[in-house]
Amino acid sequence: MDNAKIGLLTTLLLGLFILIGALLAFALKKKQKVVDFSIGLALGVMIMLSILDLLPEIIEHLGLKYIYIFIIGSIVGYVILKLLDKFIPDHDHNEEANLSKPELRENLIHIGVVTSLALVLHNIIEGMAVYGTILSDTKLGLAVTLGIGFHNIPLGMVIAATFYQSNENFWKTLSIISAVALSTFLGGLIMFFLNLSVINSILLGTLLSITLGMILFITFSELVPRIRESKDRKISYIGMTIGIMILLISSLL
Length: 253
What we know:
Number of domains: 1
Order of helices and strands: HHHHHHHH
């Protein structure tokens, strides 16, 4: 099997880590605890993902010469989700304790949607990067895949937990998770059909900057307020700690 086919297969398998996280969320009982744990887990992952993965990659591809692209890209990513926020069902973190059941469901849908949007973009970029790495160094590409896969598991958990609690429909939720998981494969397909072995550094740095802006929005406008209003902060803090540890371990690998 040539490296191009291995690259495509790897990007497809990479999405399975998201499905693994989703299945863990389905298998566990006490769904509210799963949600609180998963959101804490996602917060820890996103913080460390930004520090250990995105920022170093952006600096490597753009450097100080193009720092303005990093600033503009981050603002664009943040603003995109901020604008999308206006078109997603109303929610209010600060009064969550007083929300009715339908309002709470809309709040959970909101978090799941914005997280999924950012994750899809991030996964497309990851798929393109992993495919290019496989073409240049198969062993390194597989190691990168393993590391990325670790931090996709908790993200799959938080999306599955929030969507499932909002609609209580296993197959509908699984369809959403599958679409998000396949976004990594889409990145590989883009590279394959364009016959690209590498991505222009400035383009990749720009896309990563936009992704970072989206993650900042999710972190400070979605996850932090939700943890602050959680009735069981302890389990959220445990999840956040585990998320941080997962990313530290994956970075070592």
